Amino acid sequence: MAVEHSAAPPSGDQTRIHNIGYRSYDGPRLGRAYARRSLYSQSLRGAYGLGRSVKSKVLPMLLFVVMCVPAAIMVAVAVATKAKDLPIAYTDYALIMQAVISLYVASQAPQSVSRDLRFKTVPLYFSRPIETADYVRAKYAALASALFILTAAPLLVLYVGALLAKLDFADQTKGFAQGFVSVALLSLLFAGIGLVIAAVTPRRGFGIAAVIAVLTISYGAVSTLQAIADARNNTGAIPWIGLFSPVTLIDGVQTAFLGATSSTPGGVGPTNGEGIVYVLAVLGLIATSYGLLVRRYKKVGL
Amino acid sequence: MYDPTVARLTYRALLGRRRALILGALPLLLLVIAAVVRALAGADDQTAVNVLGGFALATMVPIIGVIAGTGAIGPEIDDGSVVYLLSKPLKRPTIIFTKLIVAIAVTMVFSAVPTLLAGLILNGNGQQVAVAYTVAALVASIAYAALFLLLGTVSRHAVVFGLVYALVWEALFGSLVPGARTLSVQQWSLAVAHKVADGDMVTSDVALPTATVLLVMVTVLATWYAGQKLRSLTLAGEE
């Protein structure tokens, strides 16, 4: 090559650069949206243990089955006894099974983000054409979808069973739609809370315990206080106490707008005016957790 | 049987950096609830029993026990750094025993002390309720720490299984199936509390002798088996 000849090397130094035939990539570049989609689908599969070891499939699948079996039993009973209505309302199902949902969030949220932090793989993601917001959106959407599958599947079982049992079509469809909206909100809320907590700690164990503590203990604390307020006939305070735990928040929203009966002590749900505060609180929490996650990943691993 | 260096390392793993704050949040919440309840409902023995039994002993003590018990050994096995500890000329049962002592101490400090304080706030130790629940929390701390330390050596998902036991078995099955109550650390410790409290404010489904025998047996067996488990520990790769 001309350059090599013109710059005469110093005598005794025989170093030379050989062209050994590396080729640059000139195929199609799939870009940011594709990377984000891949991260989303891999995280969603990972939340049910698909594409991971058999051992990590056990827990999510088990929780999914535990979630669906009571619905199947209720349907079977309703069909066998020719009941006029399902034993429980669509909107009540997720609240009754809240322990299972909490366990699922607690086990899968740290699985989704803590390991990336602990093994310092986050910078590798960001060396691809995705941005912080893409990572957060993909992970958030994946966990919310996984939760939605977990909570909506039993409702679907109930709905199909109700139609098979020839219950009133319009009535059942309305209830099913209300339950659907409620579990969608619940999935977004729980996924946000779970991810924010899990993203703080690289230790999976601490993440699990912290998520479960926030979800169940806040519920335990709030219902204890509500029970006491109910016993003191201070019913006006009950809806306001309910604002302080995710489960009672969802309960309040669906009591006010989605035709559910409240499962708080004394059965006192929020009125429409208070219900707006509930909806705002839920949406605010979802937005806050998204904001916190973006803020957390702005600094991570760099 | 007790190695100060291992103890120091375990303390640091449990309470170092911001972890003490996570552990401290629960007891703080209990105290806040106690204060709010006292302000709303005034001093009442039955309310005190409800809050201490329903929230402190049924929820807070097991969760602190899970965090301390599995946290004493789980993360080390998880990231493989336990081999450096095992390669030292220390007996494996000594390591387990030391970690157990630390886990018990941490659980006691973060669960029994706030229980006593909450009891005092709620009704000023009327009918010995506060002391009874503190004793129950102390006893339960020992059994929970031993049980969850064993879980930490057996499974990589120790925290999940610990929480399933604490929340699903003791809370859910305990309230539905009477038989499950005989096999619950919470009921055993309540049996001890029943002895301490005046009258019938605190009740348990298990008689005191049975409870004591079961408590001692679970603690000793769990510790022994954890030591055996650690002797034959194989380090698996990350899933």
What distinguishing features does this structure have?
heterodimer, A: 302 residues, mainly alpha, B: 239 residues
Summarize the structure.
The complex is a heterodimer of chains A (302) and B (239). Chain A has helices at residues 2-6, 31-47, 54-80, 90-96, 98-118, 122-126, 132-164, 169-200, 204-231, 238-241, 246-257, 272-299. By secondary structure, chain A is mainly alpha-helical.
Topology overview:
The complex is a heterodimer of chains A (302) and B (239).
Chain A: H1 2-6, H2 31-47, H3 54-80, H4 90-96, H5 98-118, H6 122-126, H7 132-164, H8 169-200, H9 204-231, H10 238-241, H11 246-257, H12 272-299
Helix pairs in contact in A: 2-7, 3-5, 3-7, 4-8, 5-7, 5-8, 5-9, 7-8, 7-12, 8-9, 8-11, 8-12, 11-12
Chain B: H1 4-15, H2 19-41, H3 45-71, H4 74-79, H5 82-86, H6 92-123, H7 129-154, H8 158-176, H9 178-182, H10 185-196, H11 208-231
Question: How would you characterize this protein structure?
Answer:
The complex is a heterodimer of chains A (302) and B (239). Chain A is an all-alpha fold and 302 residues long. Chain A has one domain (31-299). In chain A, 73% of the residues lie in helices and 0% in strands. Chain A has twelve helices and no strands. Chain A has helices spanning 2-6, 31-47, 54-80, 90-96, 98-118, 122-126, 132-164, 169-200, 204-231, 238-241, 246-257, 272-299. In chain A, helix 5 (98-118) runs antiparallel to helix 9 (204-231) and helix 7 (132-164) runs antiparallel to helix 8. The model of chain A has no long low-confidence stretch (mean pLDDT 86). With 239 residues, chain B is mainly α. Chain B has one domain. Chain B contains eleven helices and no strands. Chain B has helices at 4-15, 19-41, 45-71, 74-79, 82-86, 92-123, 129-154, 158-176, 178-182, 185-196, 208-231. In chain B, helix 6 (92-123) packs antiparallel against helix 11 (208-231) and helix 7 (129-154) crosses helix 8 (158-176). Chain B is globular, with a radius of gyration of 18 Å. The model of chain B has no long low-confidence stretch (mean pLDDT 83). The A-B interface holds A 52-53, 55-56, 59, 99, 103, 106-107, 118-119, 203-206, 208-210, 212-213, 216-217, 220-221, 224-225, 227-229, 231-232, 234 and B 19, 22, 25-26, 29, 33, 36-37, 40-41, 47, 50-51, 54-55, 59-60, 63, 66-67, 70-71, 74-75, 78-79, 156-160, 163-164, 167-168, 172, 238-239.
